[in-house]
Design brief:
This protein is α/β, with parallel strands linked by helices. It is 36% helix and 25% strand. It has helices at 15-25, 35-38, 41-49, 62-74, 86-92, 124-135; strands spanning 2-8, 29-33, 56-60, 78-83, 101-104, 114-117, 120-122, 139-142, 151-152. The protein has a seven-stranded mixed β-sheet with strand order 3-2-4-1-5-8-9, sandwiched between helices. A two-stranded antiparallel sheet has the order 6-7. β6 and β7 form a beta hairpin. The longest helix has 13 residues, at 62-74. It is globular. The termini are far apart.
């Protein structure tokens, strides 16, 4: 079935991803793309505890994710690819990479970001990066949970 959700969420793996998205989508694996987590066994152990045993979790940095993306897209199981930053998702999805849609989940306040939705804060550079990425193919929408209405990227300007 391949990857059924590409999501940017700075909290990475948490209940909203595992229960809110993973269960309804029938996710059988999660790819967590984060350079710090991919290099830390301790952090990986923490994230493994948040995921049911029936769901495989793969930890990768951006380069490995870019290299292995076709493999994950061809996987017969249903998967989620998750990054914590706009930059990481843009790097993984360079030139569209056959990705139909990207979901903006929780991207929280930090200096320089402004609120676009109650759960999405972006700098102008992050917004431009997303617009450029959308020009390469994937439709980008913000949606915190599957039951909420998706908000188009243009509406976040």
């Amino acid at each position: 079935m391949s990857i059924v959700l590409y999501r940017i969420d700075d909290r990475l793996i948490h209940g909203q991803v595992v229960i809110g998205w993973g269960r309804p989508l029938g996710a059988e694996f999660i790819v967590l793309v984060d350079p710090e987590v991919s290099g830390s066994e301790w952090e990986q152990d923490l994230y493994r505890m948040a995921v049911p045993r029936s769901v495989d979790i793969i930890f990768a940095d951006v380069e490995e994710a870019r290299r292995r993306l076709p493999e994950w897209q061809a996987d017969r199981r249903r998967g989620i690819l998750l990054t914590g930053t706009v930059a990481a998702m843009a790097a993984v999805c360079r030139n569209g990479a056959g990705i139909p849609k990207i979901n903006l989940g929780g991207i929280h306040h930090r200096p320089g970001r402004r609120q676009r939705l109650p759960y999405v804060f972006l700098t102008d550079d992050e917004y431009r990066t997303l617009m450029d990425l959308q020009q390469q193919g994937p439709k980008i929408t913000a949606q915190d949970v599957p039951t909420a209405k998706a908000v188009g990227l243009d509406d976040l300007a």
